[in-house]
Structure prediction request, 160 residues.
Amino acid sequence: MAKRKGISPVIATVIIVAVTIAVAIAVAFWMTGIVGLFTAAEKVEFVTLYATPKTGGWELTAIVRNVGTTSTSIDSIFINGVLAATVSGTTATSQTSTLKCLNSITISGNNPMTPGQNATVTISLKAGDCGVFQAQSGVSIEVKFHTTGGKEYPKLTVLP
Prediction:
């Protein structure tokens, strides 16, 4: 009768370790894919914000870019802490009753913004009493965008 032999314990250990490593790598790749779904981040950055003098007031121009990993939209605009407009798509409904010096707000570009896209917001202000501040040369103006993700992005400029 022939003697039967099995594999040596060293070879068996090597095979078990190799299979364990292969399974661990597969689980790691699978978890990375799942984690990526839950870690989408919203982030909007101001490319620029500047004020240009116009007859009887100023025009503020803000260009923002979505540098996050998920789409987002601007849903409200605040000027010096006062609600200036509510936004739906590229339509801004100005709140001239709370901000008396506000002429108009227009949005061009993309809103909602997918990652990498820009939106341009143009705000026209009249000189004089705004209700909570005076619009005049040398005054700091804080423009703050609130997004559908619940975050706020402020930027400050000075009226020339």
